């Protein structure tokens, strides 16, 4: 169900008078740039979204819940391609200049106007079912690591391995359609440390000294990401005595897990006593973030999440969209962690890293 309440600013976001919060991490243009001429960075990102059109069109055409899906998918592809071409001629068209939030929002608006509500539903359902069968084995392998520091690093690597399941990346969508994706293979093939941003050792020290009382995690994709990456990590936080709030999207977008889907996933993973492989879920809450995109503007979250987050002492933004392409440099009134895999060459270039590099950015509260 779509949120009816007004969206509000995330209460832990630092927005001092002298610095303006800007959700998008990568500046596409500067005040000195010609407002009528696209910048090289804008053109590069427009081309990235152009390359995503075929995979979205294919998913839409196969959506059996939409009458005449093939023709409507063709209309989506043409309309979105036309808008992207318009941006190349006039960056201020269609509410521009473009950034990653606007480019994502326009794509979703066209899909929804044509009747497409969740074109990745089938693949999400299939990946969720597969990951659920592996959940207990992944958890028990983590539990078998006696050294706490090594166990934490193993859990973090699991988050990265799961996060590669991202159908918003045209390159990864092509790989997935041909070969599927293996969580174990992704885990074994992670780029070696040090990662492009690597604060894991600092985080380990903080982890060993204390447990956080309340943790907010903005989650990302369905399938291996949420079930084999984030939920084992969440379970470890619960074991340490933390209360954990998982904030998921209100509406479907790409293969991101939604609030309602996450409730269903956890209900399937819990045993009769409400535990996740022996760990109580009494301190686990699921919140509707109010978001409907694969990226997020933290000045627009649900009132429910704002209320739950007001006394948190750790905020985690997981995934490239929420924690790297947006909010990488966002400051919070509490400790924060941005964690995700780099899946676009434009992001890798901006960060000075490699494609499929990892970001683990931990900041203490100011």
From TrEMBL:
Q: Name one GO cellular component term.
A: nucleus
Instruction: Enumerate the GO terms in the molecular function aspect.
Output: ATP binding; hydrolase activity; metal ion binding; pantothenate kinase activity
Entries under Pfam families matching the protein:
ARMT1-like_dom
Q: Name one GO biological process term.
A: coenzyme A biosynthetic process
What SUPFAM superfamilies has UniProt attached to this entry? AF1104-like
Q: The Damage-control phosphatase ARMT1-like metal-binding domain covers which part of the protein?
A: 51-359
Q: Does the keyword Cell membrane apply?
A: no
What cofactor requirement does the entry state? Ni(2+); Mn(2+)
**What keywords are annotated for this sequence in UniProt?**
Hydrolase, Manganese, Metal-binding, Nickel
The domain of life for this entry's organism is Eukaryota
**InterPro entries listed in its UniProt record:** ARMT-1-like_metal-bd_sf (IPR036075), ARMT1-like_metal-bd (IPR002791), At2g17340 (IPR016949), At2g17340_3_helix_bundle (IPR035073), Type_II_PanK (IPR004567)
Q: Which PANTHER family match?
A: 4'-PHOSPHOPANTETHEINE PHOSPHATASE, PANTOTHENATE KINASE
Which protein, by its recorded name, is this? Damage-control phosphatase ARMT1-like metal-binding domain-containing protein
